[in-house]
Fold:
Amino acid sequence: MTRRWFWPSFALPGVAWLVLLFLVPTYAVVAVTFGTVDPIFSQPVPVWNPLHWQFAGMRSVLAGLEPGHAFWTVFVRTFAYVALSLLGCLLIGYPVAYYLARHARRTKGLLLVLLVIPFWVSYLMRMLAWIGLLLPDGLVNKTLMDVGILSRPYGWLDGQASSVVLALIYGYVPYLILPLYATLDRIDRSVLEAGRDLGASPIRTFLHVTLPLSRHGILAASVLIALPMFGDYYTNDLISNSPRTSMIGNQINLFFQEGTQRTVGASLVIVLSVFLALLMSYYLWVTVRASAETKESLL
Amino acid sequence: MKALRDWFANPWGQPRALGAITWLYMVWSIVPVGIAILFSFNDGRSRSVWQGFSTRWWWGDPNNSVLHDPSLRSAIEQSLRLAGLDMLIAVPLGVGLAIGLTRWRGYGARPVNYLMLFPLVTPEIVMAISLLLVFVLLYGIALGTEAQTLGQVTFSISYVVIIVRGRLLSIGPEYEEAARDLGASQLGALRLVLLPLLYPAIFAGFIVVFALSIDDFVVTQYMSSGQSTQTVPILIYGAARGATTPALNAVATVMVVATLLSVGLAYFVYRWSARSQPATSGNALNEIAALEM
Structure:
């Protein structure tokens, strides 16, 4: 007979670790957000008891989120960059995943290896590579000048929104392609053949069969890369390093690295987390609804 | 014209345009890194203008090469030290959690399953800040190697759980039940039957944690205590925009080579050991690739 505590006891150390180093820390952010600030050292003083929470700090941060105020611009900019990067990632990633899943034959193994390599090359190294290319005397400027598009070096790294978006696309697109590939690879070929047999053109088959069947995979992969993108600050720091392109992650990082306004930083972390939680819930809701629909259609 | 239309309409034909996009993407995603590696062998101080081949930034230069610059060496050492510590702690915790969660049929299993997924979807900056606040304000843990390890283990555990649990589910409970029927104790069945079946997954867990640790920037930076606990990604972040030498590229290259070698090794070991085992799900390459998701 299995002893009741045999299996849970294996999980216990891991659970304890996650409680102490994930749950409690998360609550610490809340306690700092609704806590007070030491007037002499201007250090945050957490308030652990919800009954004694102070809401003034959060209120002023939320006021800053209204149109025209300090954080509004940063939030809108973050949205715009993430949306554009996501669009770029999908435009590049979908055809690649589609080709890998449907058409690559002899070269498939090689292509999969090439696809996976960026996962194992440090993100910072990949950004470092682009900094080298985008420097005023780098290869990008040199090539563009050689073919006559530019007459003098362009300052790619001097706070250009376009460079930041391109860097985000470059950084995150591998994380989109792999799950998309898995989704497309699972689509039953006979469904496509049926579409063709019934007289649909390849494009119609794609639009009416493949695309709807991969809709959920597209959503999942997009959420997967949007979450880290919303918290990204290093790509921006490396490629632009200018307040003109700063995103919400940069704003939070600034408050913490300079160390003077940690309570404001913590409030922004809470705002960001709540927003991302909503994004996740939407995704989960769509997933649950989709699986319920599948079940219904099977019955 | 008809031939063209037939060629286009053939559902099994090769769409050249898609193939071209795919290959262009592969070139675009890998060549920049290749160029950065190449520039670590540049003869001049520039990271963007090629001035001839030399190994000066690797070992030639008596002050600024990877071999002789103490700050570069210490960054590599710190990266490897953290990776080692992370592997030593996160893998046993993750394996235990995976075994416990798969076999445990109680009320507690469900919330823990959710809890384990959160570190995977939390942006790193959120995790780093919560750890920073709790270490400074509640636990009184000084920043440095210790805090960096605690932080890295926290986000590594979930990956180990996912890898090992995938394997556990594909193995199923039958082998253990057979062992129990043949008289093995519960612990004996676990040690003699289940654990050996899990070796490939545990090994994959080690490699993935190694790569996660080497690659990590945000948590490691927030938990660092200045120069002495600088890792290679922190070094790159601090120096990439400044007037640094190709030695920076060389340091980054060391880490890329270390990771790719370990992953390559993992791939072969995984394939070799999974061959002699029951119920392997799918292609080992896909599995290893999916690990970092």
In short: Residues 262-298 of chain A form the longest helix (37 residues). Chain A has a mean pLDDT of 88. The radius of gyration of chain A is 24 Å.
